[in-house]
Fold these 3 entries.
Entry 1:
Amino acid sequence: MKRYYKFILFLAFIFFCGFLYSQQASSLSGEEILKKVDDNYVYDTIKYNGIMEIDLGKRKLKKEMQAVASGTQNAFVEFTNPEDRGTRYLKINKDLWIYFPSEQQTVKISGHLLKEGMMGSDVSYEDALESGSLADKYSITLLPDEKVDNRNCHVLDLNAKVKNVPYERQKLWVDAERFVVLKREMYAKNGKLLKESKTLAVKQFGTRWFATEVFMEDKIKKGGGTTFIMTNVEFGIELPADQFNMRRLGR
């Protein structure tokens, strides 16, 4: 009888701990959860080496690059793999230019080209230009928590409240401890799933948790998706005053 009583107390303790966790998790609003995600991804400057592994179905491509960025507004990328060596991207706010070394020509990406995949990948130019807080563009509904890769996640359902967004609806699974998006689904206005991304690796930089490997799959086109890997990541670096300048594209 005494052993049975101890077992009941143990079950009650486990239930109570679970109840406390659920109460703590639900105490955060959707806006507060996104704010914590932003805190991880907002930086003054960043520098990294990147690899894009693109599965086109019948063939696979590997793109290598060096990149620097200032916040989410400005970025400069130079490809270093033999096939694309010298190809450069410059992003300034909502504008994006590409320099092609073989033609020595600079092209601004706009209009329908924004929907195209960058270097044939599942990441569109429109995705690359996306900046600013999602809370400013989407209304947020907090759904019951779920698990992704055995990690507790807050689930957010986002619906566009402004017109100039690439996706009418998004669904995010946010790591409840590290506040990194572990899974994301992106939908069209008619409810069709367009893209899905999954975080494959997360690293800690000081107090910041940051996704360093992400897989994205375009659900419309045929292929096996794109894996993006970041290495040698550095935050808070000094950049030249003219780093994000058109003159750098053709150098």
Entry 2:
Amino acid sequence: MVNESSFSEFYSHPGKPLEEHLINVAYLAEKNLKQCPSDIFKEIERDLLFKIVRISALCHDIGKATTYFQTYLFASEEKRAKLKAMKETNHGLLSAVAAFFVAKNELENRKDIKCGDYAAYLPFVAFLAVKKHHGDFEDVVDEATVEEKDIEVLLKQVDSIEERKLEILSARLEEAGLGQKITVDVLRGWVQSLPNELGVVRRKLRRLERQQSINPYLLTNFIFSLLIDADKGEVTTGRIIERTDGKFDYYLVDRYKSAMNAEDTYLNRLREKAYQEVIEKDLNLSSRLISINLPTGLGKTLTSLAFALKLRKEILSEKGYIPRIIYCLPFLSIIEQNAEQIEKVLRANGFEVDTSLLLKHHHLSEVYYKKEETEFEPDHAKILIEGWNSEIIVTTFVQLFYALLSNKNKDLRKFHRLAGSIIILDEVQSIPSNYWLLVREILKELTEQLNCYVVFVTATEPLIFSRSEMIPLVDRNFYFEKMERVIVKPRLEKDMTLEEFAESLDIEDGKSYLFILNTINSAKNFYNLLKERIGNEEMIYLSAHVVPYERLCRIKKMKERNVKFAVTTQVVEAGVDIDFDVVYRDLAPLDSINQAAGRCNRNWSGKGEVIVVSLKDERRLYSSYIYDSVLLDITRSILERYRVIEEKEFLKIIEDYYREVQERKSSDKSRELLEAVYKMKYDSTDETAGIADFKLIEEDYPRLDVFIELNEEAKEIWKNYLRVKEIKNLLERRREFDKIKADFYKYIVSIPLKTDNLPPEVAGFRYVGNNVLREYYDENTGFICKGVVALW
């Protein structure tokens, strides 16, 4: 707490002295920086990096010292809205002015300090981080522009500050390491100099694109991330979650595997051989791009976890810092599955698994955070979860890549957690090929500037990096050559309607069948055709139009091998551990077909069959609604060369496919976004791309969320939702919704916006009540879309 005798009487928040907030934010930001490797951003001396972070933190709310802001802070509720709308109340720009000039003076006073090409740029990084600490980034050239009316407002703000109080605040900040006395006259001089100084900055910023360097972008995001994470953390928890001592190793996985008593089969022996090969591989800590490329079903989750734990221990021993393990997956459907397996490993070794040890993070995550015996309030829990305060984070590609490529405050807040981390990209083939070049360049710089380790885990490794750039942990040729579980039969001589396909099927007694179709419409229609054909046999249907609660129940049933027939869309392809004797797959890119093959005879009993067909409606192929025409053309031309493909041939064929993809697919989108990164054009107001235009999942198919009151639990959740909507205070309403969010979204489906039978809107959400359930929702195939083709 602040010494009352030296208190400025400025406040940052009700009841919180301004100097206390600024000094605490600086402490938290620096403590987070200390957890990072000591040699990140090698062109900048570590001492200078700390100094810029400290200056940014100590200055970030100085603009709250104005009489305008102090009046707003303690005004009555009815007056606050009007005061908040006044430009004079805004504290960001004045705080940024202070950060810019303090940083500039620091550099000018220390000519000997090493900062590479960043000398003229670092003060602007501090300016930008502070200016936007409550907002999203735009084009940096625009961010470095002030108009005459901005200067007028700034001068009015400066003139409103009480000199005596500012003198006390400045003395406290100097004691905390600011290195600059700030008075009203000093602030006024800085404001008057600002247009000329920013003019110099703008000229330098316009030259950024010619440098073709990602480093300024990474540095900006890093400092911004440290500031905003510390700021939000200080206001909520007020502290850093202490790290564990890091005494993990791969033996945790060894013990878990031993306790499993796996049956002695040929497949399990291959799994164990692959595991031992990875674990026994000598570690070279200078090699940061790593590959585990194994056939499906060979235990990649446990193997990659064991490797990451081994690498973590080695880094701690050799480099003295504890890297976080960030385990990334493309789909929500497999996050729960993988997180559950990691939790089992930890529990089997006697760990009490709380959120500080293992964290699941995606947009539907439960807002719950626990460290030992302390369970945090939802507000605090949300900040800790979104800031990746954990040793092992299991998350989505979307969360990772938007932490890397975004203009959004909420996305960039966790960026600093990437420093020194071990990033596992499981099912890495899911990254669209038009982003390969972009992803390559970003990941490469991440390993060099932030000392990250990147591990690709897949059965179908794309050519994001050349094979010579990646360090393989296994002899992938050996394992693919041993595989004889499955044969693939391309049947592409004729494009078939769903009716023709259903009639052509030869169903054998005693075998299980999985049908993977490309669109929701085709899957629903085929499900009904197959039901006519097989009569009372039990059959499961899966698509995104079935509520997640029911999808998980059905996947669990499929895992238990209690299902003879299943009709699904692609929701089962990557990583879902299900096993069928025969898989039919509508034509798709070759890596998707290979993933489908991973759901066939996974545990090697006899010989499975994967049959690839080409299905059409009255207008076109179903595949053409979903997939890129070039990828489909490459796939078709490769598959048509074969009558039967043995599993041992999969590796060669997928390599041929990726080489052709690399040759034929355009990298224009990657190049446009890289140009935006080089010149830090976070958002664009013209025809050129901005970083905000990066979309890992293209949403050119407008959809709408609908709540389905499927059962008694859903009824109770909807009642709670209505109760939350009655809360007048916005922040309290958000807090209460966060408590039910994870359960609420178990009963949500996304439907086409143009469907004829849109359910009514109730309390701001489309809602299908239990009393009208049959009008909108089929118990087998999910939401009943009318008047529109449902794609996915």
Entry 3:
Amino acid sequence: MSREILDAMQALAREKGIDSEKLMIALEDALLSAYKKQPGSAKYARVEIDRETADFRVIELIVPERLEAHLMVETIDEETTIDPETGELREPEEPEINPRKFAEYRDQIDEQDVTPDDFGRIAAQTAKQVILQRIREAERDMMYEEYRDRVGELITGIVQQSDSRYTLVQLRERVEALLPKSEQVEGERYDHSQRIKAVIKEVSPSTKGPSIIVSRRDPELIKKLFELEVPEIADGLVEIANVAREPGYRSKIAVVSHADGVDPVGACVGPRGSRVRMVVSELRGEKIDIIPFNEEPARFVAKALSPARVREVLVDDDARQATVIVPDDQLSLAIGREGQNARLAARLTGWRVDIRSETEFAAEEAEHGYEEEEVSGRCAAILSNGRRCPNASLPGSRYCGLEAHQALAEISSDHVTALSDGAAAEAPAGAPAAGAPAASAAAPDDDPAADGDSATAAAAQPVAEMAEEAAEEQAS
């Protein structure tokens, strides 16, 4: 063999990005296949190529009969399979001993040089086909190794073909991915030569190269799109804690800041909404609510129900259930179309959400009374506007720390208006009790945060000056 062939193999390895040693091994296998096409070729042989001079030798392996029978039995046992139709053991028609097994018994095998003078045209064509096949296999292995660790990564591709079963997306030259119908967003169209973004869902090897499945429905797509548009997320200053998505309709994301002075919602929205607008555009108009994450379940649930205004939230930690009270005119908005808003809020927070209107909740409380086991530690006082005080009751008492509410224990009514002094110390809803944390998050009707866009809508607890004075007097 000439030195030119060796140089050509090295150039091919550089061009294809394949290890040159793999090509040399492929060339040895190709020459061995070509040798076996020759009449009178040895039954067992191997080919050795000098990596420096490109000289090759065909070496015949003279295997003793007993060793051959032993290796043949091992080969049959390894390749025996079960026929799927009959359930019987099926042996290969012409079993071939793996050349690696000969290396294990080299001391028992004699060798002799049987290098032919000329392979001939048919043998050369066989060598060419084997080399090309090995090159294709090496390329497939390289592509699989490249994409096997990229599951969940955002990719950009060009639509090549689309039908009722799947859409074919070209990622780069000779690398294509499948976007099956189950991973497509309902209502989206994928036209030829259109550029789309998706996340890699699954990578598996196959005979035609790596099978790459991409998705447009996966919630990870929203995370990756925001990471692409928001530098704070890419730098780790802001994190997307959770995503709840109904592809093509609406999504809610919970964001949290890990740096002082960085507003997570504002960072994701961007100047005049430019950042979130780019994400919405890529998702073909899918609405996105950006919710600030909160460790307190009541506040987090209230914010997750945006754009609806929430009056108060009662939480049951044991059952992980939140009862949300909203104004009567906000009930349909809080539930959403076909329950979509409530469903997404429950997925985002991980809590079961039960939404009640003020009128419905007040009627239930009036019907069942205010027994201590039913109020779950909440103050039993009824304010002048007819609503329950949202403060936590003091230990051993049905009322919070406000003097006016403690005075109700001496009369037979829970209404602060029944006090003889005209309820002078009455506290408005949401006033925090002295020495006890609030059991619910509440938002007033005139809360400007609740009237803003859905990304920043949240429930807040108002603190009245009268309640603060009463709490300070109680504490002194």
